[in-house]
């Protein structure tokens, strides 16, 4: 809270931590929850400047870019695991990110869809990106990679069914060509994966699904 009321200090600390991002002992390798909290405070105090600095490091495609991409992902909540809203991408006003992409959409849109929360409900950042830039194969592929990133426990077939149910629910709420194209592609892939998962579970003596 103190940092959010002292913008200059928050900015100075944020810049220092940004320089260490991706390096041994950097913010994401720190064992101190305060490090992540301080970095997040900088973003909250001055999201425009923070995004300008962070996005420049992301485009460098180095170790810092990888570390920042993980910090930005919604499932990486740093040491604030009890508060998902503290994950990187949720700290920025969507329009700040959209404006940055619009300046160089061909290169930047695929970067952002690679870490944005895959929620295609109307008006979300992912939906806006897919509506505007989903005619690009690179964007669709990056979003697909994001969609399939993560782990699960239990039945693979049930996991695929659950993801397919989300896709169908989103499909009912859109008429946008780009969004529908991506959803239909992923539903077709889910069908194939479901067949493979069912076959595997049956071969290993699991319950027939």
What secondary-structure arrangement, pairings included, does this model have?
Layout: H1 7-20, H2 33-45, H3 47-59, H4 63-72, H5 94-103, H6 105-113, H7 125-133, H8 137-147, H9 156-171, H10 177-203
Helix pairs in contact: 1-2, 2-3, 3-4, 5-6, 6-7, 6-8, 7-10, 9-10
In short:
This protein is an all-alpha fold and 209 residues long. The protein contains 10 helices and no strands. The longest helix is centred in the C-terminal third of the chain and has 27 residues, at 177-203.
Strand content: under 5%
Helix content: 55-70%
Low-confidence spans: pLDDT under 50, at least 5 residues? Answer: 77-82
Largest sheet: none
């Amino acid at each position: 809270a103190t940092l959010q009321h002292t913008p200059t200090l928050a900015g100075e600390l944020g810049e220092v931590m940004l320089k260490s991002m991706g390096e041994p002992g950097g913010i994401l390798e720190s064992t101190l929850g305060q490090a992540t909290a301080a970095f997040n405070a900088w973003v909250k105090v001055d999201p425009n400047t923070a995004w300008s600095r962070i996005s420049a490091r992301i485009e460098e495609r180095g170790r810092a870019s990888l570390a920042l991409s993980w910090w930005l992902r919604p499932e990486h909540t740093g040491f604030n695991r009890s508060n998902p809203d503290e994950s990187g991408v949720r700290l920025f006003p969507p329009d700040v990110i959209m404006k940055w992409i619009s300046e160089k959409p061909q290169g930047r849109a695929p970067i952002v869809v690679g870490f944005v929360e895959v929620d295609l409900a109307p008006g979300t950042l992912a939906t806006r990106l897919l509506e505007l830039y989903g005619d690009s194969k690179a964007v669709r592929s990056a979003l697909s990679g994001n969609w399939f990133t993560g782990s699960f426990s239990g039945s693979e077939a049930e996991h695929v069914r659950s993801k397919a149910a989300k896709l169908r629910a989103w499909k009912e709420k859109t008429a946008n060509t780009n969004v529908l194209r991506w959803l239909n592609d992923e539903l077709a892939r889910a069908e194939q994966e479901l067949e493979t998962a069912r076959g595997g579970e049956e071969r290993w003596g699991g319950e027939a699904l």
